[in-house]
Amino acid sequence: MTNQGELQAARSKLEALLPEARIDVSADPYRGLRILAISEIFSGMKPGDRRQLILSAVDDAVVAKLDLLSPAEADLMLLGDVSATTNEQQRLPLWPESIIRGQMETITVSLPSESDEPLSTPIFVTFYSLRGGVGRSTALAHTAHVLSKSSRVLCVDMDLEAPGLAALFGAENEVELDTGVVPLLLEAEMSGSVPNVSPHVLRVDPQRELYLLPAGVPDANYARKLTQLDPSSWYQEGANPLHLLIQSIREMALKPQVVLIDSRTGISAMSAPLLFDVADLAVVTFFPHPQARLGTGMLTRALLGATTTRSSDTRQYTPELRFLVSPVPGANAPEIRNHYIDRANTWISEWLAPARKLDGGPVFDDIDELIHFVGYSEEIAASDRAVQGAAENIYAPVAGWVAGFVDPLTEDPAPSGIGEVDLRKDRVLNDLRFSTGTAEDQSEDDFNETFLKTDLVERALSIETPLILGRKGTGKTALFRRLASESPSVVVTSPPGLPTTSAWMPDSEVYAAISSELTSRQLEWRSFWPLLVGIAISLNQEDAEAPTWVSERLAFVGGNKSTYGSLELVRDLRVLFSDPDAPLLALDWLARLDRQRESPVFLLFDGLDTGFGLEENDIHRRREGIAGLLSFMGARATQYENLRFKVMLREDIWRDLSVPNKSHFYGREVRLAWANQVDYLRVVVKQALRSAEFENLVVEAIGRPGLDLRQTSVEYWPENAVYDAWILLVGERVAGGKTAFTYNWVWFRLSDANDDHSPRAALQLMHEAVILEKRLNRASSYNRSILRPRSIVASLDAVSEQAIEALREEFRELENLFDELTQVGRTPFSVDEISVPAGVETLAQEVGLLGVDVGSKDDVQRYRVPELYRKALGMSRRGQA
């Protein structure tokens, strides 16, 4: 870097040579000197002579840039304070200046997607590739087709040296002479203004709002005009032709919502401002070949340091960055495809590592949202045109990046505001409440208000369903509470803390005592459960028939239910087991109790997962005990007319059981999986509607003839009403993501590695978001929805912490794996990077902590950790720093 002594020496020599001149000498960001001299001596002097004069005083080797002007020329260029000129030049959106800005160790980035204020339309998107042959223009054209389904789209061909976008739209023959970008820019250079752009625009799809501003007709006259354009000089003149063209597009009567710009490849004069100045969003297209690594990395860092024309005195915007990796080979060879995907992810993580938020934190925590991979397609490669069809699905995620910043064109738009701004929103926020605890923790009122019946729940409640499976948090205990409160039922086992839990119900100490008793008498666990069921029925039904094979007094017979505890239970069981034929006698007793009933009654079992205890011996005992229960049910339950068994069981426990007649339950079990997104949203909406303020808002905003939203339970709302209420609550879009709709964002982020969803996680997310929104709303109002999407996004960290804590509590076997995953620090990762027992890996897969990224369940090569757990474990995506 040039030092101050060298600067002063050069300035002294030039002042001696041209004592009357205005002179500024500064260090070039790369090397050498930048010299600006304004003198009358240059009037009428040729550029070469001016240069030779200056170099007679200053060594040519140290000069990086010379601006030698007469006073008249300086006035024409509107040069003001000479001392400030070089500093301003360093902010120019040209390649040298932009590249040097990107070489900083850390770069402060301020993205539009991080702001609550929506960008005014149109949104400018520049498609760029450093090298050709990667499908940049094809991607733009197909993306335009997708976006034009809901937005007004203008495509601009700025690949001026090789125009071809018109041909991709089948409109090449419609481009008229002296129309297009090149004539418009040349007119702006000559006159300082851009004429009306509309006559230069073609509509390329009569069925959609899709338009094209072509580059021009590439004939001899076009080539002559192109050579007269000098984009590098535009930022040193008063009227910038590119800015004039962009402003003219903004002011078109057409009012495009999206402008897609096809930029020239390489380090060209025109591509720099399209990337570093004009673009709200830059889609960088590349193929992960080593030849592309250095240059595309340099481009990425330059974009991180850029400031768009949207910036103002109060807000500096960095262009949004997205990466389109194309064409990725290996459609039929996963190992080849994964090789290129891994390479691209690793490179992009490295390129984005310098980006930091204003608070110093990393900007790009989840780069998966920034990347889309397009495989090689013979159909697309051989097509002369980008037409509507299957290819649109391939590029739909790219369109999703753009759509997140655009309000769609619809005849019946979803609600996008809450009306009476601050006061009304404050009332709703203060009134909203979401029950985030387990079903055991909810009050009776809360439980009754929030319980949601779905088709799956109805099946689970059916008298014909003896087994209800599900992971933690999917609602097993909620079903248990509903059955216990609304149906004729006898609670046999129950989680602690519920009103249904009695002092006599077995816990880990009781199960341990029973296990010893069974072992000493050489009995199996299947002999225990009929006795426990009989005792439960007797304590529930005063006139229940007593067992007849013992003469000793039994505490549960004619006893006081309120004083019957675990000690009495164990003692009664020991007495009943004293007869050698107790297992057979117990079955006979249960059959007589069944005949004594006049109508069906549910026998309810819940809390079996933790009821046995969490130590290694407890888990072994649990496996044998539950297997004994299911074995007994499989052999005997169908023989009873009125005793109907209902067992709530964690799915991983069920899979681990060895039961001789397990197939007896196939087709008769229900798995609580929450696979329906609308039902998942209903859970949140139903709880939000407990707020009278929010209910009033919903009725006013989305009410429709023939549907009384107040009198109709959310379970029976049509899907569009559920989505509209959701949008009113949390907004429609998360800016700039492939899963741009908020309901998709929540759906994918809260899924585990098995694509299972816990309603509890959704409610925890809403609870945290309400707390955050109250704080944010005091600082800056946001009235497009009750909760701004940013509140939802920022609350995921807290939900992730709670999700990991729930796993810690229930699966102590995973503790060492948690530590190892934190050490690995990123996802996905090779299976060789962890060293826990195979059984722990299997359990981690079953509970959704680990998913197979490469390989199969039986031959895993690489694991991934879902977003729900990743954040709490401190794991980054793809090596992001």
Automatic annotation (TrEMBL):
The lineage of its organism: Bacteria, Bacillati, Actinomycetota, Actinomycetes, Kineosporiales. It comes from the Bacteria. Keywords: Coiled coil. SUPFAM superfamilies: P-loop containing nucleoside triphosphate hydrolases (SSF52540). It comes from Kineosporia succinea. Transmembrane segments: none annotated. NCBIfam families: AAA_KGGVGR, ATPase_Sll1717. Residues 797-824 form a coiled coil. This is Cellulose biosynthesis protein BcsQ.
